[in-house]
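User: For a reading group we're discussing how well predicted structures match intuition. Take Primosomal protein N' (Replication factor Y)-superfamily II helicase. Before you show the prediction, I'll give you the sequence so everyone sees exactly what went in.
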Amino acid sequence: MAERDPETNVALGEGKLTFPCEQCGSALEYAPGSDQLRCNHCGHTQAIQGERSILEHDFEDMLQRIGRAPASTLGGHSVQCEGCGAQAMLAGQAGRCAFCGAPVVMDVKELGEIVPPESLLPFGIDGPKAREAFQQWVRKLWFAPNDLKRLAQVHGIDGVYLPYWTYDSQTTTRYKGLRGDHYYVTESYTDAQGNRQTRQVQKTRWRPASGTVHVGFDDVLVCASQSLPRPLIEKLEPWDLHNLRGFEAGYLSGFIAERYRIGLEDGFQVADERMQPEIRSAIRSDIGGDVQQILSMQVRHADVKCKHVLLPLWISSFRYKEKVFRFIVNARTGEVAGERPWSVAKIVLTVLLVAAVIAAIVIVAKSR
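Assistant: Thanks. Here is the predicted 3D structure of Primosomal protein N' (Replication factor Y)-superfamily II helicase, as C-alpha cells, for the group to look at:
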C-alpha cells in the first residue's frame, strides 16, 4: 500500500502524486471550472480542501530567502525533456514533452531548490473545449500544408500550469527631455502653372524640460518559463489575476506543472522592461506640448513586492519537417495563440494564379 502524506492524504508511490477516491480508491483528477476532484472510474467527486490566502513577499527579503524551499514542496513526479530541457512536475507518466513534442522524457531525481508557488488560477476550460478551439484554429489557417489537420488530430493537447512571477513597485523617475510646441508660418511658392501661392507650414519650437514622475504598478506579470517564446505567451494576456486562489496541490491533479527557469531577480529585469512604456507615457504627459523627446530617465523602484503563481493553459506541440510548432489556449479566458507552418507550394501556386489573372486582364484590355 502506498505511503500517505499525513497532512494532505496524498498517496505517494513510485514518485507519483495521486489523490485517492474515497469510494473506489482510483486516482482523482481536478475538474476544470470547479473546486472538486473527480474520479473518472466511478464518477465520485471530492471537494478540494483548504482555502489559503494570497501572499505577497518583499522582493529583497525573498531574494535573501530564495533557495530554501525544496522542489518536493510541489509533490509529484519530476521530469526533464531531453529535447528542449523543460523541467516539470506531473501527477503521472510523460510519454512526450508538452512543450516541444519530443517523445523521450527522462526522470529527474533532484531538481534543486526552488521558491514554491503559493497561488494559482485553476483551469476553467476543459480539454474538449481546448481541442475544439485547436481544430477551429487549424481549419482557419491560410496556406497551411495539407497534412496539418492530420497532425493536429494525431498530437494531443496537454493541460499545463506555467510558472509566473508578479511584481508590484512604486516607481519614481527623474527625467530630462525636450518639449515641442507647434506654430505655423506663411510661405509663398510658385505652383506648376507659374502662379504665386501661399501656404501654412508647421514648425516646432523646442525648449528643455525636466521633472519627476511617480507611477505605481500592481501585479506586473512575467512568465518564468523558457519553454515558450515570450511574444507567443504574451498573446494570452490579460489573465484574471483578481481570481487567484491560494495554492492547493489538488488543482494540479491530472495536469503538468512546469518548474520556473527564469529566477526571481532575472524576472524583475523583464518586469522593469514591461513597466517602461507606462513610465515613458507618464513622462510625455508631464512634459506636455505637442510633441516630446525623452533624453534621459532614471527609474527608482520602492516597496517592491513579488509572488510566484501558476497559470493554466492548454498546449499542443507538434513537429513538422523537423521544426516544432505550438498552439496554446488560455485555460481561463479561451484566448488562443499559435505557431504554424506554411505550404510553399500553395503560396507559389497562388502567386502564379494571381499573375495569370492579371496578365489575362491586361491582354483583354489591350485587345479592346
